[in-house]
Every structure is written in C-alpha cells, then in structure tokens.
Amino acid sequence: MRKDWDTYFLDIAYMASTRSQCSRRHVGAVLVKGKKLLGTAYNGAPMGVPDCSEAGCMIVEEYELAPVDGEEKLVKKQRCVRTIHAEQNLLLFTDLHDRDGATVYVTDQPCWTCANMLANSGVKEIVYHRSYPKDAEKVEKLMDQLGIRFRRLEPYTPPPGVPTERVTS
C-alpha cells in the first residue's frame, strides 16, 4: 500500500533523526515544498565539536513552575545546552527562498525557541508526531496568531528500527 505524503515525509524526518548522537532524544526535521524535499536536519553538537556521545552531555539545571498534583510547584529540570535542535539546523542549512510557503515535518513538536524561529522563517505549515507538553499551549497560540498551519499527525507509526522515545532518562 502506497503511503500518503504526510507519512512519507515524517518517515524521512525519523530517518534523519537516526543521525543524531544525542543520548537524550533523537529528533529529525525535513523541509518540503510542493512535494519536493529541500532539506533534512537532526539535533546535535555544532560541526567540529565533539558531540554528547564523545564528550558527555553539557547539562544545566533550571527551575520552572509546573503542575504537580493539581498545584503549580517549582520543579528542577535538566537540559543539554551542547545540542542544536533539528529545527534550528534545518533553518541554518536551507535558503529563505526555499522556506517561503514550505512545510516542515519534524519528529517532535517544536519547543518555544524553535517555534519562534520557524514563525519567522517563511514556512506555512508545521507537521509533527511526538508532543512536547511543556510549550504546547503557547506554541499552538503563536502559530494560530500567525496563520501557520500546525498539526500533529495522528494516527502515525514511525518506521521500524528508529528511536522513538528517550534513549536515557
């Protein structure tokens, strides 16, 4: 059975994610315009810098308000600051002309920073698979305000053999 275009391009985003050396999450993104694939990217360290698998994660601890048992509480979070997100790499290595009116397929719902960058990139649509609850509400509101189509592809099953959850906790 032939795959529909959304499934086809999200499969390619998942395949791009297999290049990631991030020990926390493999994320891939692709840029598509008129059914033409214009670029692929994945999360990882800057070019020429040892990645997390070679040098270890560069973890910072932050505190944020989060709902816990129905209450807003201060929660300690850890994040790696060595990694450039897949969406950021996609924007760095594609042309503005190509992005204008294009669609981005990404394995994960963009974080707030990536959403802001995509909002200014010229894309007209963002399609993702895995949700990112931390920023979901404000990202959805931003995309709605800007008229950028923003949707989670459901139902969807990634290609066999690609990482789909955190590699480590």
From TrEMBL:
GO cellular component terms, semicolon-separated: cytoplasm
Binding site for Zn(2+): 85, 111, 114
Listed cofactors: Zn(2+)
GO molecular function: dCMP deaminase activity; zinc ion binding
GO BP term, example: pyrimidine nucleotide metabolic process
Keywords: Hydrolase, Metal-binding, Zinc
CDD domains per the UniProt record, alphabetical: deoxycytidylate_deaminase
Domain annotation CMP/dCMP-type deaminase: ranges: 4-153
Keyword flag Zinc: yes
Catalytic residue positions: 87 (proton donor)
Family: Belongs to the cytidine and deoxycytidylate deaminase family.
PANTHER family for this protein: DEOXYCYTIDYLATE DEAMINASE, DEOXYCYTIDYLATE DEAMINASE-RELATED
Protein name per UniProt: CMP deaminase
Organism: Paenibacillus antri
